[in-house]
């Protein structure tokens, strides 16, 4: 098999975690006799500096032609005051829209080895394994009209029926393979668009009577995720609520540096960590590469049905954590403090150890 991947390292720690991910990817692909073909392009601030735009047509074309896109992160202090359409983040938003990546999947899974280093108590975290399905190409992020002048600023939160239906359907389908529980998160007590969301989700639910549906207001959901994360299986929600809830979920798992994501459309797929470009630690070889490496695992599973490869990467991450290796963001006294590169080497080493063991290829991210 040959796989064609568009690589977009981006800004800040993006290139550092991408280097880690590509090293892992190449190693895994070789083990599984999979031929890889890469295109690499600038995106975000790096692209703005070189071409005066955060996303060139050439980069977009490379992404449209690839089987899967891998993205590091975009953004940084130096580009914060640019007009909106030139900000690094605009590139990511346009890419999601152009590739029609309407489903963003962000799993919040607690690694056992890690349970004592989270900011939450171990007994609260035990058994936490849920996934956020965030709508990614609609809602207030893209609604018109939008703008600001000297006296006011405005955005529009709008959803079309088909947009809610397709993400809800995917959430119910995945729930069927999991614990069969969907929590739809909205703000229907205040927003009409949320009332609409709630009604459409209920309509879609009729085709999935074996899955339990609960509705929850977003403020309560934020609290419940921290109070009792074990109650959730699949959370489905709109673009902005999903953005916020997935960062909260990031802390459940210990650090944003641990959370991978997949963005899927009908034809295209993009994989990126949930975290940003972390300008505060960029260039120091101390970023946690796990979110990016786990995003590669998601790519193998979702884009190429290589479940065994994905499972081995996931287990190699787990084993590396069990052995006590930690980057600075998750370090506690008694651990082995390692750099981005050393963490990557350990994960690859443990991948090789596990590769020789028997396994069924059960991927849980
Ligand atoms: N998908 C993306 O490209 C993406 C996502 C979020 C934020 N951003 C952008 O990134 C820039 C910085 O945003 P922010 O500071 O709000 O969020 P951030 O995720 O970049 O950083 C938040 C905090 O988490 C830490 N952190 C994040 N990832 C880490 C990792 N892998 N290892 C260790 N520590 C890590 C950072 O050091 C920082 O203290 C902004 O320009 C923002 O727009 C981009
Ligand atoms: C960088 C930004 C545009 C992006 C978002 O808000 O979607 C980020 O926060 C994310 O969660 O992927
Ligand atoms: Mg975010």
UniProtKB/TrEMBL annotation:
<keyword id="KW-0520">NAD</keyword>
<dbReference type="GO" id="GO:0051287">
    <property type="term" value="F:NAD binding"/>
</dbReference>
<keyword id="KW-0028">Amino-acid biosynthesis</keyword>
<feature type="binding site">
    <location>
        <begin position="276"/>
        <end position="288"/>
    </location>
    <ligand>
        <name>NAD(+)</name>
    </ligand>
</feature>
<keyword id="KW-0460">Magnesium</keyword>
<feature type="site" description="Important for catalysis">
    <location>
        <position position="141"/>
    </location>
</feature>
<keyword id="KW-0432">Leucine biosynthesis</keyword>
<feature type="binding site">
    <location>
        <position position="247"/>
    </location>
    <ligand>
        <name>Mg(2+)</name>
    </ligand>
</feature>
<feature type="site" description="Important for catalysis">
    <location>
        <position position="187"/>
    </location>
</feature>
<dbReference type="InterPro" id="IPR004429">
    <property type="entry name" value="Isopropylmalate_DH"/>
</dbReference>
<dbReference type="Pfam" id="PF00180">
    <property type="entry name" value="Iso_dh"/>
</dbReference>
<keyword id="KW-0464">Manganese</keyword>
<keyword id="KW-0479">Metal-binding</keyword>
<feature type="binding site">
    <location>
        <position position="96"/>
    </location>
    <ligand>
        <name>substrate</name>
    </ligand>
</feature>
<feature type="binding site">
    <location>
        <position position="219"/>
    </location>
    <ligand>
        <name>Mg(2+)</name>
    </ligand>
</feature>
<comment type="similarity">
    <text>Belongs to the isocitrate and isopropylmalate dehydrogenases family. LeuB type 1 subfamily.</text>
</comment>
<keyword id="KW-0100">Branched-chain amino acid biosynthesis</keyword>
<feature type="binding site">
    <location>
        <position position="219"/>
    </location>
    <ligand>
        <name>substrate</name>
    </ligand>
</feature>
<keyword id="KW-0560">Oxidoreductase</keyword>
<protein>
    <recommendedName>
        <fullName>3-isopropylmalate dehydrogenase</fullName>
        <ecNumber>1.1.1.85</ecNumber>
    </recommendedName>
</protein>
<dbReference type="GO" id="GO:0005829">
    <property type="term" value="C:cytosol"/>
</dbReference>
<feature type="binding site">
    <location>
        <position position="134"/>
    </location>
    <ligand>
        <name>substrate</name>
    </ligand>
</feature>
<comment type="pathway">
    <text>Amino-acid biosynthesis; L-leucine biosynthesis; L-leucine from 3-methyl-2-oxobutanoate: step 3/4.</text>
</comment>
<dbReference type="GO" id="GO:0009098">
    <property type="term" value="P:L-leucine biosynthetic process"/>
</dbReference>
<dbReference type="GO" id="GO:0000287">
    <property type="term" value="F:magnesium ion binding"/>
</dbReference>
<feature type="domain" description="Isopropylmalate dehydrogenase-like">
    <location>
        <begin position="4"/>
        <end position="347"/>
    </location>
</feature>
<feature type="binding site">
    <location>
        <begin position="76"/>
        <end position="89"/>
    </location>
    <ligand>
        <name>NAD(+)</name>
    </ligand>
</feature>
<feature type="binding site">
    <location>
        <position position="106"/>
    </location>
    <ligand>
        <name>substrate</name>
    </ligand>
</feature>
<keyword id="KW-0963">Cytoplasm</keyword>
<dbReference type="InterPro" id="IPR019818">
    <property type="entry name" value="IsoCit/isopropylmalate_DH_CS"/>
</dbReference>
<feature type="binding site">
    <location>
        <position position="243"/>
    </location>
    <ligand>
        <name>Mg(2+)</name>
    </ligand>
</feature>
<dbReference type="GO" id="GO:0003862">
    <property type="term" value="F:3-isopropylmalate dehydrogenase activity"/>
</dbReference>
<comment type="function">
    <text>Catalyzes the oxidation of 3-carboxy-2-hydroxy-4-methylpentanoate (3-isopropylmalate) to 3-carboxy-4-methyl-2-oxopentanoate. The product decarboxylates to 4-methyl-2 oxopentanoate.</text>
</comment>
<dbReference type="InterPro" id="IPR024084">
    <property type="entry name" value="IsoPropMal-DH-like_dom"/>
</dbReference>
<comment type="subunit">
    <text>Homodimer.</text>
</comment>
């Amino acid at each position: 098999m040959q796989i064609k991947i568009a690589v977009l390292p981006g800004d800040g720690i993006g290139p550092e975690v991408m280097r880690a991910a590509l090293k892992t990817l190449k190693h895994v692909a070789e083990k599984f006799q999979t031929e890889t073909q890469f295109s690499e392009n600038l995106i975000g601030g790096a692209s703005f500096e070189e071409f005066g735009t955060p996303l060139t047509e050439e980069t977009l074309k490379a992404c449209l032609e690839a089987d899967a896109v891998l993205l590091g992160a975009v953004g940084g202090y130096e580009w914060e005051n640019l007009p909106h359409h030139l900000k690094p983040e605009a590139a990511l938003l346009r890419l999601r829209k152009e590739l029609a990546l309407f489903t963003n999947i962000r799993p919040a899974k607690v690694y056992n080895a890690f349970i004592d280093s989270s900011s939450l108590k171990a007994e609260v975290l035990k058994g936490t394994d849920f996934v956020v399905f965030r709508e990614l190409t609609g809602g207030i992020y893209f609604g018109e009209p939008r703008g600001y002048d000297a006296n006011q600023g405005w955005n529009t939160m709008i959803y079309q029926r088909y947009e809610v239906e397709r993400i809800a359907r995917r959430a119910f389908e995945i729930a069927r393979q999991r614990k069969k529980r969907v929590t739809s998160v909205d703000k229907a007590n205040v927003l009409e668009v949320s009332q609409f969301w709630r009604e459409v989700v209920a309509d879609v639910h009729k085709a999935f009577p074996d899955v339990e549906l609960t509705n929850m207001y977003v403020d309560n959901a934020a609290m419940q995720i921290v109070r009792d994360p074990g109650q959730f299986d699949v959370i489905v929600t709109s673009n902005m609520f999903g953005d916020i809830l997935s960062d909260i979920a990031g802390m459940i798992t210990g650090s944003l540096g641990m959370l991978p994501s997949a963005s899927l459309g009908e034809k295209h797929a993009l994989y990126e960590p949930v975290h940003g470009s972390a300008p505060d630690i960029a260039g120091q070889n101390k970023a946690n590469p796990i979110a990016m490496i786990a995003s590669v695992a998601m790519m193998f599973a979702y884009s190429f049905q290589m479940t065994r490869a994905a499972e081995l990467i996931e287990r190699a991450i787990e084993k590396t954590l069990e052995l006590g290796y930690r980057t600075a963001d998750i370090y506690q006294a008694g651990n082995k403090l390692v750099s981005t590169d050393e963490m990557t080497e350990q994960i690859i080493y443990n991948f090789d150890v596990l590769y020789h063991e028997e396994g069924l290829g059960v991927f849980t991210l």
